[in-house]
Amino acid sequence: LQKLLQLLQATDDPLIQEQALITLSNSAAFSVNQDIVRNLGGLPVIGAMLSDSTPKVKEKALNALNNLSMNMENQEEIQVYIIQVCRSIESAPLNSEVQLAGLRLLTNLSVTSDYHHQMTDSIPSFLHLLSEGTERTQIQALKVLVNLSANPAMTRHLLRAQV
């Protein structure tokens, strides 16, 4: 895992970055690896890939963070990317893999109400995806909205959202 993270930092080749992110994402299926990646300082390394202009690299980084977000310690570090993820969802082409990967990550991060306040400004975008997206996009947007709706503090934001 350490070598993969070093490789990710050392290369600008999108194909190598994509493969390294896929491997990290697959490794994160095991909870012990989630801790190892965090302890190696890997979350910011992967998070930096969210700024990549290559959609496939961005998608694979979102998938890796999604898999790594299955524990609370990782969520505490990953939450710093919520606003960036929301912007990526809003700027990505409708129904794109980047959009879906971002929504999946937000679904995990919105299971508890700890980070809901960071998603407030994107509620209109989630509602837009619910009305305009394909079924896959609608389901992912709905999952985020359902998680947000479980928090009474979000009621006002959800009801006042301009669609």
UniProtKB/TrEMBL annotation:
<protein>
    <submittedName>
        <fullName>ARM10 protein</fullName>
    </submittedName>
</protein>
<dbReference type="InterPro" id="IPR000225">
    <property type="entry name" value="Armadillo"/>
</dbReference>
<keyword id="KW-0735">Signal-anchor</keyword>
<dbReference type="GO" id="GO:0005741">
    <property type="term" value="C:mitochondrial outer membrane"/>
</dbReference>
<keyword id="KW-1000">Mitochondrion outer membrane</keyword>
<keyword id="KW-1133">Transmembrane helix</keyword>
<dbReference type="Pfam" id="PF04826">
    <property type="entry name" value="Arm_2"/>
</dbReference>
<dbReference type="InterPro" id="IPR016024">
    <property type="entry name" value="ARM-type_fold"/>
</dbReference>
<dbReference type="InterPro" id="IPR011989">
    <property type="entry name" value="ARM-like"/>
</dbReference>
<feature type="domain" description="Armadillo repeat-containing">
    <location>
        <begin position="1"/>
        <end position="163"/>
    </location>
</feature>
<keyword id="KW-0472">Membrane</keyword>
<comment type="similarity">
    <text>Belongs to the eutherian X-chromosome-specific Armcx family.</text>
</comment>
<keyword id="KW-0496">Mitochondrion</keyword>
<feature type="repeat" description="ARM">
    <location>
        <begin position="41"/>
        <end position="78"/>
    </location>
</feature>
<keyword id="KW-0812">Transmembrane</keyword>
<dbReference type="InterPro" id="IPR006911">
    <property type="entry name" value="ARM-rpt_dom"/>
</dbReference>
<dbReference type="InterPro" id="IPR051303">
    <property type="entry name" value="Armcx_regulator"/>
</dbReference>
